[in-house]
Amino acid sequence: MRSLGALYVIAILLLLAAPLVVVTGVSLNGGQSLNFPPQDMSLRWYGALFQQPDWLGPLRNSVLIAALASLLAVAVALPLALHVWARGGWLGRALYTLGVAPFMLPPVITALGFLVFWISLGMYGQFSATVVSHAVFLVTLPVVTISLGLQAIDPALIEAARVMGAPRAKVLRTVVLPLIVPYMISGYAFAFVLSLNEYIIAYMVAGFTVETLPIKIFNSLRYGYTPIMGVVSVLFVAIAVAVFGLIGRYGNLPRLLGAERVRE
Amino acid sequence: MSAGVGRTTPGWLGAIPAVWLAVLFLIPFAIMLSVSVAQRVPGGFFEPGFELASYARLFTAFFGRILLTSVLIAGGAALICVALAFPFTVILAGMRRRAQTLVLVMLLAVLSLSEVIIGFSLSTLLSRTAGVGNLFAALGLTETSQAYTPGLFALMAGLCYLGFPYAVLVLYPPVSRLDPELGEAARSMGASPLRGFLTVTVPVLRAPILGALILVFVFTLGAYLLPQLLGRPRHWTLSVHITDQAIFQSNLPLAAAMAVVLLLVALAMVGLALLLGRQREAGA
Q1: Which of A226, A237, B69, B130 lies deepest, with the highest CB count within 10 Å?
Q2: Between chain A and chain B, how many beta carbons pairs sit less than 8 Å apart?
């Protein structure tokens, strides 16, 4: 039974990996067409991604948006999670609900909300509109990770610091913050990866002026498939595996995802 | 919220996220609501006003068909995902931490992938020149390689690919909290592992399974690119039509009215799922 179970898990993981294996193969084609197994293997399209201006622009946009939006998301999630943790109350409950709501709803709703919002403000189609929209949409991830980090703090530690006469700001800076920094980093990383991959909000808010990589791929799909799309896919998978792999290596991924006891 | 940490933060700290989210999350929704009752100006955006014309259009066969298609497709995908994900999660939760972390990294990587990339990958996998068509032809199952996309099969495969990791992650916390002694007790009483699974594990986790089903349903309901990349126009879901109306038909009021309906459906379902989760916690 145990081996049967392991077999099931491996079979599903292989199914999940199959499209990615094919795409990796496709990205290695020497010619224009997508063949698997690849023909005239070459890394030519990998070079092309970083040289062709029409792909380099979206690449730069995507990375910049993800970096800034995640930073903004963590900057808002930190006071939110702190307030919920230390004060609770109706405001805490409302804030937490608002913090996780964008993520629970079909994203097209949030996207349309942002579209009409930025039109009303006259900021439709601007780079900053995409950044702020992503930051609001992705705030859920750092809110959840930072809240988990705060819950893990032993209250006795805080009490001890207070009893020894440390003022509130000092307790926050010297006790609480250092303990939750790893959770802030993983929240940032989660948000970064998801912003990189996000399509519908970026498209609705500024799809025609601020092209991100997912938008660029979708637009190019209409004119036919080229191996360069495979290259972008490989790049995105690699980034995701690297980021989550690092969190798994240095953090406690099972706990971060809600498990309470795990066999070593 | 325990006594020890109370008032560790200054009271004004909560105002920062409160103002930020109120302005940037609640106001957009309010504007969307007002747009849904605004008057459509053909060729332009809209004019403020109050008319229910856009909502009236939702009571037509056109919209009924879209809604039915969306519910059937998302519901089917949710059922398949949870049916596959539940045994997967039970096995996963019993693994050692190192193995669990590895599997979780892979699931998270797949989950975070853009729909564009999933659609592109699957249509390549199911294509004539680079995919399983070649494999089947080589094995002699089919005479020549053929494409399996676009179509309902490709679309369902895509939605399951998208929804499966999500289903596992939704089921993971309740499954991992389940007392492993429960299964052992069933086994010591002579139940086979499969019987123990069906008569103990599944019934105990009935509420989380139902909750996961709803959440995966809402999640796949939000899929926007896969119906376009892997399905045919008759498989387009509500999400696709909302964008189509907003961007290509320039009918923002109708798009907003459809989004409001989708919002209400999603809110009701998520609320139900949360309620199920709470009952479970109260019962445990």
Answers
A1: B130
A2: 305
Q: Which of A6-20, A115-129, A166-180, B137-151 has the lowest mean pLDDT?
A: B137-151
Work out the percent of chain A whose per-residue pLDDT is above 90: 55
Cis peptide upstream of residue B150 (ω within 30 degrees of 0)? yes
3-state SS, chain A, equals CHHHHHHHHHHHHHHHHHHHHHHHHHHCCCCCCCCCCCCCCCCHHHHHHHHCHHHHHHHHHHHHHHHHHHHHHHHHHHHHHHHHHHCCHHHHHHHHHHHHHHHHCCHHHHHHHHHHHHHHHCCCCCHHHHHHHHHHHCCHHHHHHHHHHHHCCCHHHHHHHHHCCCCHHHHHHHHHHHHHHHHHHHHHHHHHHHHHHCCHHHHHHHCCCCCCHHHHHHHHHCCCCCHHHHHHHHHHHHHHHHHHHHHHHHCCHHHHCCCCCCCC
Chain B contact for A208 (CB, 8 A cutoff): no
Give B109-167 pLDDT, tens digit per residue: 999 988 998 998 888 888 877 777 777 887 777 777 777 778 899 999 999 999 999 99
Of how many residues is chain B composed? Answer: 284
What's chain A's length in residues?
A: 264
CA A75/CA B25 separation, integer angstroms: 16
Assess A50–B contact: CB distance below 8 Å, yes or no.
Answer: no
Please tell me if residue A159 touches chain B, with a CB cutoff of 8 Å.
yes
Rounded CA Rg of chain A: 22
Q: What is the pTM of this model?
A: 0.90
Of the candidates B1, B18, B87, which has its C-beta nearest A8's C-beta? B87
Give domain limits for chain A: 47-256
Residues of chain B with Cβ-Cβ distance to A116 below 8 Å are: 28, 31-32, 35, 252, 256
CATH H-level, domain A47-256: superfamily: MetI-like (1.10.3720.10)
Q: In chain B, what are the domains?
A: 66-283 (1.10.3720.10)
The pLDDT value recorded for residue B282 is: 56
Q: CB-based contacts of A240: which residues, under 8 Å, 6+ apart?
A: A193, A197, B108, B109, B112, B113
Mean pLDDT of chain B: 86
Of A26, A83, A240, the CB nearest to B113: A240
Please calculate the CA angle B206-B212-B214 and round it to the nearest 5 degrees.
Answer: 105
CB A100 within 8 A of CB A140: yes
CB B162 within 8 A of CB B223: yes
**Pick from B45, B115, B131: CB nearest A119:** B45
The mean of the pLDDT values for chain A is 90
Type of residue found at B254? L
Is A262 an interface residue toward B (CB < 8 Å)? yes
